[in-house]
User: Fold this.
Amino acid sequence: MADFHQNGNITTLHNLRTRDVREMENELSAFASTRNITLILPCLYSELEGDALHNILKELSEVKYLHRIIIGLDAASEEQFRHAKEFFKALDQNHIVIWNDSPRMLALGDRLGALGLRPNEQGKGKNVWSSLGYLMSCADSDVMAIHDCDILTYDKEMLARLVYPVANPTFPYQVAKGYYARIGGEKLNGRVTRLLVSPLLIALNRVIGSRDYIDFLRSFRYPLSGEFAMRTAILPDLRIPSDWGLEIGVLSEAWRNLAPKAVCQVEISDAYDHKHQDLSADEATAGLNRMSTDICKAIFRKLAADGTVFTPNVFRTLKATYYRLALDLLDSYCSDAKMNGLNIDRHTEERSIELFAENIMRAGQVFLDNPHETPFIPTWSRVHAADPSFLTDMNAAAIADEAEY
Assistant:
């Protein structure tokens, strides 16, 4: 995707293949001498047994500009936590594995529960939120980056390109969102972005009219990427969604809190592949079925908060408009795949579109039935206001777990 197109809403930083990554890393090392850079890795224990993480650690062990790596470990027993600590010793940098299911961390969760501030759902959103809390408790980083632990095509240039826009003190960016082409196994991937988010945003523009928020989301080439970097000053007031709307939720927070010139997207890879979710057409609480519903709810909630009025008739019209647009875009994707020697299973793609159309209605009904639902985890500013010693105690718990097990 080596072009130089700018959309006029946010800055796009391309990879024009004119710069050696070693030169960029040298600059990052210079930046890191005055502004510490931390990487957060939200991780399920099962990912230690996958194909991606070994290579990710190998690549990261060569990165010299990181101040700290924080691994948020979910779904792990005590024995698995001990194994994870050994596994991540492959990292040369200062790092810590936070056992989110430890007795100490669960006790801290009960403490939040007594205040009415406990996160509602387990998952990536809570993992990221907890890791951000630990990062803030350390109070020694100026820049943070997050990426997933299932990236099969990972190399250290991804991180360098992701973090550079917010680490460079001469740049104005507070948030950088990674983007890339989702291809792998001779297939065009990225179904939820291609077949749900893109046509849904176009359909919303047609049904409810132009909105600045919709234009902002449409500016991102891959809005569902799990890779982003931020300057840490904005973290205390960041509202993290507790469901699978995490990536859309973070972009929504950037739109709410920052000027467009403070947000950019950066091309971090020519080809990106990771673990693929099943469609799970018969199970509404799993796979792309649940993900698509949560993403729709996240978009509808943000538009409603900005003054959009939704009714059952609006959602019915939106579903019909989306369905036609998604099929039209599928024609374009099929041509693009053919041009590049890639495969698309048209039957499976159309089944996905049919499911996503139904989930637009399902998400709309959930919103109408419970318009006051608060799906966000409380901000760390609110937690600190309610319990000023919580972050300090969380830091101590993580260190105690590290020492004991």
Remarks:
- DSSP finds 14 helices and eleven strands in the chain.
- The longest helix spans residues 312-339.
- The chain has a mean pLDDT of 93.
